[in-house]
From TrEMBL:
Pfam assignment, any one: Aa_trans
UniProt keyword terms in alphabetical order: Membrane, Transmembrane, Transmembrane helix, Vacuole
Topological category with respect to the lipid bilayer: Multi-pass membrane protein
Transmembrane segments: 12-32, 38-59, 148-166, 186-206, 227-248, 268-288, 426-454, 475-495
UniProt lineage: Eukaryota, Fungi, Dikarya, Ascomycota, Saccharomycotina
GO cellular component terms given for this protein: fungal-type vacuole membrane
Domain Amino acid transporter transmembrane, chain residue ranges per copy: 6-488
Record family assignment: Belongs to the amino acid/polyamine transporter 2 family.
PANTHER family on file: AMINO ACID TRANSPORTER, VACUOLAR AMINO ACID TRANSPORTER 7
Name of this protein: Similar to Saccharomyces cerevisiae YIL088C AVT7 Putative transporter, member of a family of seven S. cerevisiae genes (AVT1-7) related to vesicular GABA-glycine transporters
Organism: Maudiozyma saulgeensis
Compartment(s) where it occurs, according to its Swiss-Prot or TrEMBL record: Vacuole membrane
GO MF entries: L-arginine transmembrane transporter activity; L-glutamate transmembrane transporter activity; L-histidine transmembrane transporter activity; L-lysine transmembrane transporter activity; L-serine transmembrane transporter activity; L-tyrosine transmembrane transporter activity
């Protein structure tokens, strides 16, 4: 029986926007310092456009599944690049782990300035709130904490913009020490790619998109597009406003965290730091949610490979015969079945022709049975080569029993906290994670999935790929290459030069 979502477009937009708009907003003025106003604006728009398109591609790929509510990176990997599934989940882990670490580092920097005490004490104390929130299973359960987080960020946004007008626009003489401002020129070419990776980091929201799609009450592409477009538009407004206002206030003196530029004794900054600290604590679960899923996917994948080597494959659904088997039998059987399905579909290609008049929505073949590498996407082809599923076959959900849910939660969380106690550089973490995990999640993986899957549902019913889908496929391939190039250049610059606060 297929699950039914309960999340609304409004709550989903809030969760996706809060996933995107986070601590990365504080580093956007630093990006403008390196790039100048014109290039900074252009790169921000480029990141918004490409990241938004990546979200759109992932949503469109989920629609080729017979049940889009089972969509996940793992599901798409198993019908496109099954042997590379671990690499994709590792990219997810790098992204979410790095973002989570940057949040914990900021918690350790901010709370001592608010209430006194040592940095490590406050990082550990935050676990009293973070850990219970991370124990919630549904993304939609976090909508209220997301609302609080957005309200907190709205105050910071108003502070940065207000201080710009007070100190610069409405003051005859600048009330703060401002360095030179570059409107058209790039201040630091060596920091250009490194700072661009920070913008990409700020726009990353793909790790929670599938959870949002799965829980959405009406998960049609029309509703998903509303969520994606609204979230990207709101995020861009926040980023551009804070980036330009913060940079024009301090010029070349802008630091990696814009709040560090302000008078640390100001009551306005005290409130801003309290809002930021609250946002970090309440938003951490939004980042941990996809991290836990990726860790579980890795576990399931390697158990699947183990099951393939340990026992003969029994793909029959004989419930009576399996009734008395132990729990591991069920896991190994379903795991082996999923691997066997991916293997079988790559070997059993046939040519089919279907009269379009005989097709209805309920007769559409399962796109998960298509081995995408066997599909010729050229619209001039004479026949569509696809793979038929076994009768009654459907995409399989990745098992995530309660015991493993809590085992992963309370093993990964302590590891993140231990590392955060020794980590100091906020800007460097953002740049490094943005150069690797963010580019992979925002560009490379969506592009690879889109190139393989978009239009495959048309091929499955003997139809030609539409011109629009063919265009999306080509753009997806370009997006993937764009991600690879940006990742290599940004990673090189970040490692070689680091970031200067």
């Amino acid at each position: 029986m297929r699950s039914v979502g309960t999340a609304t477009v409004g709550s989903s937009t809030i969760n996706l926007t809060k996933t995107i708009v986070g601590a990365g907003m504080l580093a956007i003025p630093f990006v403008f310092k390196n790039d100048g106003v014109l290039v900074g604006v252009l790169l921000t728009i480029l990141a918004a456009t490409t990241s938004g398109f990546g979200l759109f591609v992932l949503a469109k790929c989920s629609k080729v599944l017979s049940n889009p509510r089972t969509s996940s990176f793992f599901t798409l990997c198993m019908i496109t690049y099954p042997s590379l599934s671990p690499l994709f989940d590792i990219a997810m882990i790098v992204q979410c782990f790095g973002v989570g670490l940057s949040y914990l580092v900021l918690i350790g920097d901010i709370f001592p300035s608010l209430f006194g005490g040592k940095r490590n004490f406050w990082i550990l104390a935050s676990s009293l709130i973070v850990w219970p929130l991370c124990s919630l299973k549904k993304m939609d359960s976090l909508r209220y904490s997301s609302i609080i987080g957005l309200l907190a960020l709205s105050y910071i946004f108003l502070l940065v913009v207000s201080m710009f007008f007070i100190n610069t626009v409405f003051s005859e003489n600048d009330l703060v020490e401002r360095g030179p401002v570059n409107w058209l020129q790039v201040y630091s070419w060596k920091g250009l790619f490194s700072s661009f990776s920070i913008v990409i980091f700020a726009y990353t929201g793909s790790m929670n998109l599938f959870s949002i799609i799965n829980e959405l009450e009406d998960n049609s592409m029309t509703q998903i597009n509303k969520i994606v477009n609204s979230s990207i538009a709101i995020s861009s407004f926040f980023f551009l406003s804070v980036g330009i206002a913060g940079y024009l206030t301090y010029g070349s003196n802008t630091l990696g965290n814009i709040l560090l530029n302000y008078d640390q004794n100001s009551p306005w900054l005290y409130v801003a730091n309290f809002c930021l600290a609250s946002m970090l604590v309440l938003s951490f679960p939004l980042l941990f949610h996809p991290l836990r899923i990726a860790v579980n996917n890795l576990f399931v994948y390697f158990r699947m490979k183990q099951a393939m080597g340990e026992q003969p494959l029994d793909l029959s659904d004989n419930d009576e015969e399996n009734e008395n088997q132990p729990e591991d039998y069920y896991f190994n059987s379903s795991a082996a079945s999923l691997v066997a399905t991916a293997t079988r579909t790559s070997m059993a290609s046939i040519v089919m022709t279907i009269d379009e008049d005989d097709i209805n929505d309920d007769d559409r073949l399962l796109a998960s049975s298509i081995h995408a590498s066997d599909i010729d996407v050229d619209n001039d082809m004479n026949s569509d080569i696809i793979t038929l599923p076994e009768p009654g076959e459907e995409e399989q959900h990745v098992s995530f029993p309660d015991y493993r849910f809590y085992a992963i939660t309370f093993s990964v969380l302590p590891l993140m906290y231990v590392i955060s106690l020794r980590l100091k550089s906020f800007a460097f973490v953002l740049a490094l994670v943005g150069a690797t995990g963010s580019t992979s999640m925002s560009f490379t993986l969506p592009g690879l999935f889109g190139y393989k899957l978009i239009g495959s549902d048309s091929l499955a019913v003997g139809q030609m790929i539409s011109k629009r889908d063919n265009f999306y496929k080509k753009c997806s391939l370009l997006l993937s290459w764009f991600g690879i190039i940006v990742m290599l250049l940004s990673l090189y610059v970040t490692i070689k030069y680091g970031t200067e606060n």
